[in-house]
Amino acid sequence: MDEKSNHNQKSIQKKDDKLKNFIERIERLSEEKNKINFDIKEVFSVAKSSGYDTTIMRKILALRKMDIDERLEQEALLKTYKNALGIYQ
After folding, report:
1. Does residue 89 lie within any of the structural domains?
2. b vs e for 53-88, b when ≥16 Cβ sit within 10 Å of the residue's Cβ?
3. Is residue 62 a part of any domain in this protein?
4. For 52-81, what is each residue's pLDDT tens digit?
5. Structural domain boundaries enclosing 52
């Protein structure tokens, strides 16, 4: 019985260590993510002070992430809606 109890404690300890490792890894990654987000904000700030429109830059970034077919479809829909509302380019 003592041997079984010892085995259970070791098993629990392994799971606890594994959980602790996951939590610590997530914390490290969150710190890195925060640093990267800060760096991105800094780049936008410098771009804005250089006269660039950061709202448009964000839209360009979103467009660049999109699949080409998805982007073309959205552009076609936007053009259709604008024409329907009398908003011409």
Report:
1. no
2. eeeeeeeeeeeeeeeeeeeeeeeeeeeeeeeeeeee
3. yes
4. 999 999 999 999 999 999 999 999 999 999
5. 2-84
